[in-house]
Design goal:
It is built from 6 helices and 5 strands. The protein is α+β, with helices and mostly antiparallel strands.
Length: about 160
C-alpha cells in the first residue's frame, strides 16, 4: 500500500532530524534481504545505539538537502537503507559491514563529518575496530609500560628476599 503525503512528510522529518544529530550515516543496498535478516539487522542496530531506516531515494534527498547536506542518493545503486550513528561514528559502517558477510547487503556510500564519502571509504571504515575496541587498545598501550615497571619491581623484590 502506498504511503500518504502525511506519512512521507513524517519520514522526511525524521530523516532530517537524524541527519542533523548524527555524526555519520551509511547507505546500503538492502535488495534481496529476507525479513528474518532484516529483523536481525534492526535488532543489532538498536543494541549498538544505531538507527536504521529505509526510505525512498527522493525522500532521502529532500531530507539531506533540508539538513544542509550535499548528497545525491539517486545516483546510488539499489534500494537504500540508512544506518545513523550519533555516539559512535564507526558503528553504522561496522554493523552493516558485518552484515555484508552473511546477507546480500552492499555498502554503497555514506556521510562522515557532514561530508559525503564514497563506497571504498565506507568499506574501509567497516573494517576498523569498534570504538570500545579502540579504547581498550589505547588503555593497554598506556598501561603496558606501567605494568612492565611493576613486574620489574616485583622481580627485584623477590630476588632480594631470596638472597637475604
Amino acid at each position: 500500500m502506498a504511503k500518504s503525503k502525511a506519512q512521507k512528510s513524517l519520514s522526511k522529518d525524521k530523516l532530517v532530524e537524524l541527519f542533523k544529530k548524527s555524526s555519520s550515516a551509511v547507505f546500503a543496498d538492502y535488495q534481496g534481504l529476507t525479513v528474518a535478516k532484516a529483523d536481525k539487522l534492526r535488532k543489532t542496530t538498536r543494541e549498538q545505539g544505531v538507527t536504521y531506516m529505509v526510505a525512498k531515494k527522493s525522500i532521502i534527498n529532500l531530507a539531506a538537502k533540508e539538513a544542509g547536506l550535499e548528497i545525491d542518493v539517486k545516483s546510488l545503486p539499489g534500494m537504500i537503507g540508512i544506518a545513523f550513528g550519533a555516539e559512535d561514528e564507526i558503528a553504522p559502517a561496522k554493523i552493516l559491514g558485518d552484515m555484508t558477510k552473511e546477507t546480500p547487503i552492499k555498502l554503497v556510500g555514506g556521510i562522515f563529518d557532514k561530508k559525503s564519502i564514497p563506497q571504498a571509504q565506507v568499506v574501509a571504515l567497516s573494517n576498523l575496530p569498534g570504538k570500545q575496541q579502540l579504547l581498550g587498545m589505547l588503555v593497554s598501550v598506556i598501561a603496558g609500560p606501567m605494568s612492565g615497571f611493576v613486574r620489574a619491581l616485583d622481580a627485584i623484590s623477590k630476588k632480594e628476599t631470596v638472597n637475604a
